[in-house]
Amino acid sequence: MIKIENLSKSFGTVEAVKDVSFVVNDGEILGFLGPNGAGKTTTIRTITSYLAPTKGNVYINDLNVNDNPDEIRKQIGYLAEHNPLYDEMVVYDFLEFVANIRQIPAVDFKARLKDVTELCGLKKVIYRPIKELSKGFRQRVGLAQAIIHDPKILILDEPTTGLDPNQIVEIRGLIKALGKEKTVIISSHILQEIQATADRTIIINNGEIVADGTVEELMSSFKGHTMLELELKNANKEDIHNLTSINEDIKIDSVLENKNNIISKLEYPNNIDPREEIFNYALGKNWKILEMTRHKVSLEDIFRTLTVEGGENND
Amino acid sequence: MTNIGTIYKKEILSFFNSPVAYITIIVFLLINSWFFTSTFFLINQSDLRQLFSLAPLTFLFFVPAITMSLVAKEKNDGTLEFLTTMPISDTEIIVGKFLSAVSLLSTALLFTLIHFLTLMIVGTNIDIGSLISGYLGLIILGAAYTSIGIFASTITENQITSFIISFLIIFIFFILNKILILVPDFLTSIIQYISIDYHLSNISKGVIDTRNIIYFGSIITFFLMLSTRILEMRKWR
Q1: In chain B, what are the domain boundaries?
Q2: What class does CATH assign to A2-220?
Q3: How far is CA A154 from CA A93, B120, B232, in A?
Q4: pLDDT tens digit sequence for B78-110
């Protein structure tokens, strides 16, 4: 179990992570979601004891990470952001080097190597220098080094950045397979990734946790709202805001002008359906409705609401 | 201990996997040999003192060239994060890298034994004892320079900066003995004790004094410990 307790980390005057607490249970795949610069990597680096917390504590199985870094690192497999590897090394030498540092006995190394090369599909490139590998293979080498000692905890920081869609699907499959027997923390700024792999999602923004729960829980907490997209002709920006007079629960998210047309996004609670009134209102004003689309709220919208708008409010 | 060995092996491999090691060794040997042989027959003495007095100067360029990449490149490539999140201590990383650089240095010195062979052929009355202590002195000196080079490599991400900083620090140690006239009287003995030259001249004369060993040992320990601390400082920045 990974327990993060009131973790804060500052770099000079910049507070990258502010009083973050959460728990990752054994066998869980936790998705760590947030826009770039939200504090994901900083949090992860304190878990792997690359950085020490300014305040607060990180415990792994009741061991404080800061006091027992070596013990903790033995239990963790870590794929760092941007997947740093020794480019000049041959894949085999690199994995052997990792196995040596991990103190895997030479007898077991052959078997472990066979397992990870099969699991990560590295057979073809095992004797190639890492610098000659494609990005997808590099990523697999990074995964292979993270799991060669069969760790209980796997921490992956943006494991699919820069991969093509096919490779992304492959790596996700691999992560899901690994997650069956391990505790996994996977960070990403891509929603689909988290949606596809994680059991539970934590959304972090500006160094603070803004949401914590399963995808279903997060969805249902936001289900109360419907988004409506309108494209209107002959309308003007100011008048759009008068739409709130129809029903005060209507919220106008955005108004954009595109050539002669106005594109506006509205939001309203699910218990009302003001579409008919909006139509009549438009008719009264002599607007031409070119498009009216209703959107169900997706994780994407939750993410946007929590991170973009939350961020603006904070500033 | 096994971890130091693992790091050592990896560094030695990467030295000889890249052309940099070969180039620096060849340049080192060429320069040394040129200065050595150009005066060798003029002096007409069958010893390697010329080589031993020259090496501290060539090391000034050679050692920073070897050590500049050791930590700075890992910082720049991000592999330092990979390495420091492995179950291995920062001291083991530094010591492993240090030993590998000293080995590379010793390998380069090994090739200068060709001058020794020349001596054996053309010379008479060769003092083997002073030769051995001379080489020992060079290795100890090289090790002290290397520890400074590693320190310079830990404080920057840029290999060129690392080269210049280690060059500067070594240069200060190198010239201290030569600026003694400019120093107030009460400081001379201190400055002289700090200068590398003063301790080296004893060793290359064939005298191995515990004071000199302690001196070089302290320099190495000091800079290696400092490097380890700096590596650990990443946690708290």
Answers
A1: 2-233
A2: alpha beta
A3: 22, 62, 24
A4: 999 999 999 999 999 999 999 999 999 999 999
